[in-house]
Amino acid sequence: MQNYRRFLVLICITISGIFFPAICKSQSLSGVTGLITIPTARMQKDGTLSFGISYFERKHQVYFDRTKDVGHAYINLTILPFLELVFRANRPLNYETFSKYTFDRTPMIRIRLLNERKYLPAILLGIHDFASTSSWGTVYFNATYLVLSKKSGDFDVHCGYAPRIMKASAYQLDGLFGGLAYSPHKAINLFAEYDTKTINSGVEFLFLKHFGISLATINFDSFAAGMNYKIFL
Question: Which residues touch 97 (CB under 8 Å, ≥6 apart)?
Fold first, then answer.
């Protein structure tokens, strides 16, 4: 199994090296532009429409009290150079029968307040899960945050803070968070982050300007993965 995983990673790197895309911003597993789970002040190019899915093992998932693995499916639209809109459906997995099917819906909005300049970082304001669409009136993925991003060579540094402004059942971000991205190649992004609860690391492979695959570890003891497809309108 270990040799198989090494072979798979090698194939991904090889293909990326042949078909590397133009520079585009990384897509987090949570659906917004970001690293693994944290958002950044980066945005996709104006007119970018993204579709994606992601998977998280249950160990660190507040949704369903860590009893179920969680799957996400999302649509992300950068409609203006400073505005990003996201709608995500969250579903607990490992159900035995279809009759127990359920899912939670998470709307998100992000507004960039300042573009990055020579000596100043980009600054962005974001709100996640600001309205409940379930019959129980529960909000599991709330976050209201301000995040700063500053690039230096192949490194991109991000730092943010998420206070408890809105009442929610659980918060995706709660306090200080931050992360570092390193891009040794146009088709490969390496991530390390602190999401206010756990320390995570991962890698994203980009193919043919449109397709991305992400592999990550959450707190170094559980697995997460995702894929996304981008359309440039």
Answer: none
Query: How far is Cα 191 from Cα 183, in angstroms, rounded to an integer?
Result: 9
d(CA 175, CA 168): 15
Two tokens, residue 117:
């300049």
Q: What is the distance in angstroms between the CA of the first residue and the CA of the last residue of the chain?
A: 41
Question: Coil, strand or helix: which one is 209?
Answer: coil
Length of the chain: 233
Q: Write the DSSP string, 89-104.
A: EEEE---SSGGG---E
CA 179, CA 38: separation in Å to the nearest integer?
8
For 207-220, what is the mean pLDDT? 92
pLDDT one-digit tens code per residue, 55-77: 999 999 888 778 889 999 999 99
Q: Is 129 left (phi over 0), alpha (psi -120 to 50) or beta?
A: left
Q: In terms of DSSP bridges, do strands 155-162 and 175-185 run parallel, antiparallel, or are they unpaired?
A: antiparallel
Give residue-wise pLDDT tens across range 36-45.
999 999 999 9
Does pTM top 0.85 for this prediction? Answer: no
Output the CA angle 219-7-18, nearest 5 degrees: 100
Q: How far apart are CA 161 and CA 103, in angstroms?
A: 28
All domains in the chain, ordered by first residue = 2-232 (2.40.160.40)
